[in-house]
Write a structure and sequence with these properties.
alpha+beta, 6-stranded mixed sheet, 324 residues
Length: 324
């Protein structure tokens, strides 16, 4: 009887640990556009009659490539399981995410999703995929970014609140900050503006909840030591993706002129820091190709200039494992 009791307590402990394991992925998909023109957006670059010849065939290849990438992120030292939460940047609209989750090779994963509907000129947005078996959606809202002078309309910040299996509430913020077009110094105020709005939202949450568990991820278009990230650190966020590498040669999430760097970041609040098991770049070999100009490897992107490369993305995904 005593042995059975000990075994029961041990199994209960193991199950408790298993229930609080989460795999979280962040990925910039590199122009995940459909092939139809949105009359309100500048999406002419990705239409069948554009110089890129963005056809239905290429579109469905791209969807399945993104699906492959997400599936590959489910592998860790303990085995494989589908990621629980996936933050995607650079997706065009709801139709694209519907096709990705309901009609591509991801269709059996049974992901639900929420996304923004921003005023970005090109029509690109952010979307959060989540497994309803490990993350119960409580609510989702967006933080609209009002442009500064000379700033083009940009992507809204997505805020999602959900309950994980152990009963704790997790607040997730997903963003895609303005690019560095025009130069880093010229465009820096625009990214600072987005970060200020994010920090205001975080401060507001902290006034409502005691030590909320916060996770912020996305394409910040800034590095870990950039002013916008330093502002986030001042507001109690910890960058758990700083300096992370892959297993097959990647020293960041993207490569430009032979230099690796990471504009993609994952940050957590101090209340969530002890849950972080590890964070890495997923540089599975099929996501890479030889860098014939600079040596080594680089992400196997979808286009090289205007030439179709039948790849995945110019960014590699970040993978975060939480366990409590």
């Amino acid at each position: 009887m005593r042995s059975l009791l000990i075994l029961s307590l041990t199994l209960s402990s193991v199950l408790s640990v298993a229930q609080t394991r989460l795999t979280i992925v962040e990925l910039n998909t590199e122009n995940l556009f459909d092939t139809r023109h949105d009359s309100l957006k500048n999406d002419y670059e990705f239409l069948p009659d554009s110089p890129r010849h963005w056809t239905r065939t290429k579109y469905w290849q791209k969807l399945n490539r993104i699906g492959q990438t997400i599936i590959a992120c489910g592998e860790d030292s303990s085995g494989w399981s589908l990621p629980d939460i996936v933050g995607l940047c650079e997706v065009e609209n709801d139709s694209v995410i519907f096709d990705l989750t309901r009609r591509s090779l991801l269709r059996k994963a049974r992901y639900d999703y929420v996304m923004t509907a921003s005023k970005d000129n090109r029509g690109i947005d952010v979307a959060l995929l989540y497994s309803p078996f490990s993350f119960r959606l409580i609510k989702a809202d967006t933080i609209r970014i009002s442009p500064l002078k000379e700033m083009r309309p940009t992507r809204d910040i997505l805020h999602v609140e959900g309950e994980i299996e152990c009963g704790d509430t997790l607040h997730i913020f997903l963003l895609h900050a303005p690019s560095r077009m025009g130069g880093e110094l010229y465009s820096r105020p625009f990214r600072m503006h987005v970060m200020e709005r994010l920090c205001d939202a975080i401060d507001s949450l902290r006034s409502q909840y005691a030590n909320p568990k916060l996770l912020v991820m996305g394409d910040f278009n800034d590095y870990a030591d950039s002013p916008s990230l330093k502002l986030a650190y001042e507001h109690g966020l910890i960058n758990v993706s700083t300096g992370v590498h892959g297993r097959n040669g990647a020293k960041g999430t993207y490569r430009y002129h032979g230099e690796w760097g990471s504009l993609d970041q994952i940050l957590v609040s101090k209340s969530l820091r002890s849950w972080v098991k590890d964070c890495r770049v997923n540089d599975a070999s099929f996501l890479l190709e030889e860098d014939t100009k600079y040596g080594g490897v680089k992400p196997r992107r979808n286009y090289n200039g205007m030439r179709f490369n039948d790849g995945f993305s110019d960014h590699l995904p970040l993978v975060l494992h939480l366990q409590h």
